[in-house]
Design goal:
Elements: H1 6-16, H2 18-26, E1 29-31, E2 37-39, H3 45-60, H4 64-77, H5 84-97, H6 101-114, H7 121-136, E3 140-143, E4 147-150, H8 152-166, H9 170-185, H10 189-202, H11 206-222, H12 232-247, H13 249-254, H14 257-281, H15 285-298, H16 303-313
Antiparallel strand pairs: 1-2, 3-4
Length: about 325
């Protein structure tokens, strides 16, 4: 495997972190024989870095032809940058500059598959993250060169692949969080719950774990459509809120979780009261009485329980 050059590191830094660009411009560095960064007294690395930054600007401005020309000139002036990973990455950059987002993502994938330890890896992942974010925000894609269709699902797949590649890195966390929030904005609460559940499993401690637990409770609650529909999500929401209250009592008090649990109890009681009334209307006295009693026993302080008591007393 060829030694990583300082040029490649400079490319990655300039494409990923603006702060890194500032730092590297202020102090020229090189890799020594042990692979450590050292100060260089005399170098044209700063000029090189500026050229790379200009290429990035051309990509962001959507000028693929100028990107190709600039890359060609860069390789001529700085032959040390030549490499298959660099060429593969720049091929994706040209596609991105041309607005061919889906093809660009596939090319970044090809690059990441072939060169998983390239210094340009983080730059490619960040480019994919940018494209996925646009898709999740509503940017459409073109199919058959004519039709403009939603690319939301594509955005989800890109983010999930990023998270699969990067494990518990910050970009993996941000990718899954972006997907979860996107589902919530689209009111796809069951899908959002599943994504938060995945986040909770991957990061079981710290602030992210607390956020995930609360989000799972909220999304399960939001997924409940009303007393005439399936109540499993309401039961799950109750369990998650109770767990949150147990683990984070101070935060639960601030968020008034007890009030939420009271509302959930009212809704569960109302749902079971409707079932009891249904059996009453159909002449099924046994099941009706069973559900009336269940409402009284399980949710005694609710309005539904008072109504159930009245029904029982009349029988």
């Amino acid at each position: 495997m060829r030694k990583l050059s300082i040029l490649a590191i400079l490319i990655a830094a300039s494409l990923v972190l603006p702060t890194a660009r500032v730092a590297l411009c202020a102090e020229t560095l090189r890799l020594d024989e042990q692979g450590q960064l050292q100060k260089a007294a005399d170098s044209n690395d700063e000029q090189y870095l500026l050229r790379v930054a200009e290429i990035k600007k051309l990509v962001d401005a959507g000028k693929p032809d100028k990107v190709k020309k600039a890359v060609k000139q860069l390789k001529k002036d700085f032959p040390g940058v030549a490499g298959k990973d660099f060429d593969s990455f720049m091929e994706a950059e040209v596609l991105l500059a041309g607005g061919k987002l889906t093809k660009a993502v596939k090319q970044y994938d090809d690059f990441l598959d072939k060169y998983p330890i390239s210094p340009l890896k983080d730059a490619a992942l960040n480019r994919q993250f940018e494209v996925a974010t646009e898709f999740l925000a509503g940017r459409k894609k073109t199919i058959l060169m004519v039709f403009r269709v939603s690319a939301f699902d594509d955005g989800v797949k890109i983010m999930e692949k990023i998270s699969d590649r990067t494990g518990t890195a910050d970009i993996a966390k941000n990718a899954l969080l972006t997907v979860a929030h996107s589902y919530e904005k689209r009111k796809q609460y069951n899908e959002a719950y599943l994504k938060w559940s995945e986040i909770s499993t991957r990061w079981p401690t710290g602030q992210i774990a607390k956020d995930a637990l609360l989000a799972m409770a909220k999304n399960k609650y939001a997924a409940f459509r009303g007393p005439v529909y399936d109540g499993s999500s309401l039961i799950s929401a109750k369990t998650y809120y109770e767990n949150f209250k147990l683990r984070y009592p101070e935060e639960a008090q601030e968020l008034k979780v007890d009030d939420i649990l009271t509302r959930i109890s009212e809704q569960l009681a109302e749902k079971n009261l409707l079932i009891a009334k249904y059996y009453d209307r159909t002449g099924s006295a046994g099941p009706a009485n069973m559900y009336y009693q269940m409402v009284v026993d399980n949710w005694p302080n609710t309005k539904a329980a008072q109504m159930a008591k009245e029904k029982i007393s009349k029988k």
